Amino acid sequence: MRALPLKPQGLASVMLAVLRREVSLAMRQKGEVLTPLVFFVVIASLFPLGVGPESALLLRMAPGVLWVSALLAAMLSLQRLFATDYADGSLEQMALSPTPLGLLVAAKALSHFLLSGLPLVLMAPVLGLQFGLDSRALGILMLSLLLGTPTLSLVGSIGAALTLGVRGAGVLLSLLILPLYIPVLIFGAGAVEADAAGLGAGGHLSLLAALLVLSLFFAPLATTAALRISLE
Amino acid sequence: MGKTSLLRMVCGLAPIESGNIYWNGIPIHSQRESYRQDLCYLGHLNALQESMTVNENLSFSAALGGVAPSPVQTQEVLARFGVGGRGQQLARHLSQGQKRRVALARLALSQARLWVLDEPFVAMDEAGVTMLADLIAGHLSQGGVAVLTSHQQVDIGSVPAQLLELRA
Q1: From A14, A29, A84, residue closest to B66, measured CB to CB
Q2: Which residues does residue B67 pair with via DSSP β-bridges, in sequence order?
Q3: Residue B155 pLDDT greater than 80, yes or no
Q4: What predicted TM-score, i.e. pTM, was given to this entire model?
Q5: Could you say which of A1, A17, A231 has the minimum Cβ distance to residue B63?
């Protein structure tokens, strides 16, 4: 009895295996992908009902409202990022894998972006039309979301790791993470407004990209440290 | 100190209060990656994702270990562990004993030299216990190392084992 000659796998293919697993799980539990998206649509649609149909006001509010809605929607699915893996022991196996945990965590954050951030980016122009944004503003809104939502996933993964196994994790997670989302919100919503004011969105978008690069480097490290503490 | 905490320390999951754990003469905390290359841990939890099939679970855990078994290899291993033909089933449709067997099948798909097993004989019938004991004996005879906890005394062939009786 024994030793099967097994084909070795490189780091990239291990990360791809994590990504493929997350995506195929999400496809089996479609509700988990659809809930944040529906939430996003509902929240953004409540504002015109609440503040009245005055188009100048709606136009002015649109970027901020859409960005805040996107922020809240992205938070909704964060709690589950590590929770099931923690409960069934898969997370332990990941922590003991020869592949650095930081890379596995980055793959998980990427899957969170693909499954909850990207649908928001694609849905945003439809909602933007409700608010009367023109095509140029819609383009900038999408671009700002495309640069901002991966940051939300990466920074959110830190919070998800810190609140693992804690009672009332959902609320705690929002309290921890929402303040960290503020810079993304300011530059994201600001990009559309700056362009409308004739200042150009370039500066804001560059800063969003800078935040993304920064969190791409630091967030997996912080998440890894938090996960190791949660697993002790 | 409990058995489980001891094993988690051996794996490097739990911090050590005092002293050191060495592997190949080097403390494990200063050679984490190469140590994990040599380690296969099976805890209380089976690490099976309920919504994935048995095959998907096995190939994912093999990927975490850095290997890619072929479908034929996976099938062989499952058959050896008495859960052949279950490959396409979702993990949630398996019984407790079958889940344990699938979790144990990971050992056969791992290149690790050191096996750390937490109560591997629990929830196993007699045939399962014999099969697992054979598997461990085979691993040891090929120069492998196994650290395991158990409530029952299980005969692992002729391989000399060190027995530690822990009393709480």
Answers
A1: A14
A2: A8
A3: no
A4: 0.90
A5: A17
